[in-house]
Amino acid sequence: MKGRRWAIFLCGMVSVFSVVRAQQKDSTAGYVIRHESEMGKPAPGPHDGTGQTIGYGYFDDVSDFKIYFRKRVLHPGASIGRHTQQKDEVYYCESGSGKLTVNGKEFDFKPGDAVLTRTGSTHELHQSGDTDLVIFIVYEK
Fold first, then answer.
1. I need a surface site. Which of 94, 96, 97, 111 has the fewest CB within 10 A?
2. Average pLDDT, stretch 80-98?
3. Given this model, what pLDDT does residue 20 score?
4. How high is the pLDDT of residue 85?
5. 100, 125 in Cβ contact below 8 A?
6. Where are the domains of the chain?
7. What is the pLDDT at residue 7?
8. Residues facing residue 72 across a β-bridge
9. Which residues contact 17 (CB under 8 A, 6 or more apart)?
């Protein structure tokens, strides 16, 4: 068992160093590329939401990039819980459907819709329908 743990740890460290090395190389070249297939992380609904989601933080680890650009997949029954905005934030619906509530007012949220929630406002999002709700989220670090 000890040998297996060591092997898993070693593989993890090699992966971390590979990402750092690739990031340094890409930054020098003036770009950073991310592959969605290498980064999805299962998580419960953010902000005390319900159900299960998958989060993708495309450039979260790029220290001098001042914007979060994320994707969140909300499986059926999942939600992002009600929370107050500390910074302006954009949600863009890529696919699926949901119910978006902003400052107590409910809206249908469907592909092609975008919402800008301003500092001090509250919002929450609930997946609806039979398929995953896929959104992109953008806000300042």
1. 111
2. 97
3. 45
4. 95
5. yes
6. 1-33, 34-140
7. 44
8. 55, 135
9. none
Structure tokens at 65: 């990039």
- C-alpha 66/C-alpha 139 separation (Å) is 9
The answer regarding whether domain 34-140 maps to CATH 2.60.120.10 reads yes
Query: Per-residue pLDDT for 106 more than 60?
Result: yes
For residues 29 and 130, give the distance between their C-alpha atoms in angstroms, rounded to a whole number.
43
> SS3 for 32-99, per residue?
CCCCHHHCCEEEECCCCCCCEEEEEECCCCCCCCCEEEEEEEECCCCEEEEEECCCCEEEEEEECEEE
27 band by pLDDT with thresholds 50, 70 and 90: low
Residue with tokens 């059926």: 76
Question: Closest Cα partner for 71 from 108, 102, 106, 96?
Answer: 96
CA distance linking residue 60 with residue 32, whole number of Å: 11
pLDDT at 15 over 70: no
